[in-house]
Amino acid sequence: MNASLSTGHADSGDRPSAGVPYLLVGMMFLTYAFSYLDRQIVNIVAEHMKTDLDLADWQIGAMSGLGFALLYTTLGLPVARLAERTDRVNIITAALMVWSGCTALFGLGRNFIEVFAARIGVGLGEAGGSPPAMSMIADATPRAYQSRALALYNLGVPMGALLGMVLGGFVVDALGWRWAFWIVGPPGILLAILIRMLLRDPRGRADAEASKAVRSQDTVPSLGEVAASLRRNTAFWWIAAGAALTTFVGYGQQTFYASFFLRNHADQLDDLAKALGLAGPTTVLGIGLGIAFGLGGAIGTILGGQLGDRWRSPHAYLWVPALGSALAAPLYIATLVLPSAGFSLALLVVPVALKSMWYGPIYAAVQRMTHARSRATVLAIFLFLLNALGLGFGPLSIGLISDWLAQSMGEAQGLRWALIAVTIVSLASSLCFWAAKGRPGEVPG
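Request: output the structure for the sequence above.
Response:
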């Protein structure tokens, strides 16, 4: 079955009166926020871990990115295939319990091998998060609201970053870096229990309300059928390339921004902490980065979702992230060269907002070119592509470049120029999103 991105999958979601399923979206938002809280708290404590465990920058990058990505990417597809056939609420509940438990175990690590292994466990759990969550949201949400609903879900990224940075900054100065993980892990298990009690998989209702064209395809398309359809879908591959490059830059930046400020602006941060009566420089930095990534990410995510739905053109789903990525790159570089830590943190809100505009439009574009019973599978393939490159190698690449440059520049300047070099990749991601314009988009299966 062929269809362009402009038509997508015909379903009952053309009725705007149905609105957004706020309970489902809200609970999935909390799940995503917890996943990013568990991810981002690593970044604010990374410099303290580096000193305590005697780690190199490449090991920080490998632990933060590659260790997490190993099972997060490889298990995403089999979990998604399971989600096409079984109760997705059960999958998300089990996944949340696993990654929350492994987050708590992370605080027990005594060396690189142990924290790397704990990080693999977090990735194992989080593999069962996004594919079933976003496919449920797509099943339960009218097409006219899908970009906004998925943007609301993706608000978990900036909100989790905000909580992780702020909470981590306070805890590390007050109690040490290990306590950060012991504090944030257990609440995720409680959230998993709450989700199991309150939610039901919307697939039954979605199937009952589906259009005649969809009802005629009751069976779940095989993985081979989905893959064959995706091979012909050039728009999907350009979009996936753009998203992969965007996350390559984003995950790398978020992993090392705290270390960058502590190495290059430690005295200024210490002065700010004393002036504000706070425990130490990491507390100040946690608040500053939390606001930058939380507020900026929330503004950009909401704005991107609104713009994608408001113009209703399929091209809006592509030019919104293309423009955002292109404008963000020079502003990110400015934050790395400004002499003032305060001005740099304040300016950081703007490029974070611009770069975050891709979430709602891009995920909506992928869902619209996807058969209803293949959504979790296609999303898992999409997430594999962007996370294998972005999450797996973004932080590791910056760490390797930083260690190499540090031999001649020192650790502070080596990390600065490693971040600048990788930020330029945002321009390539913008070109990929723009290249998807006008490409054929097919409905898999």
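Residues 1-17, 206-217 have pLDDT under 50 and may be disordered.
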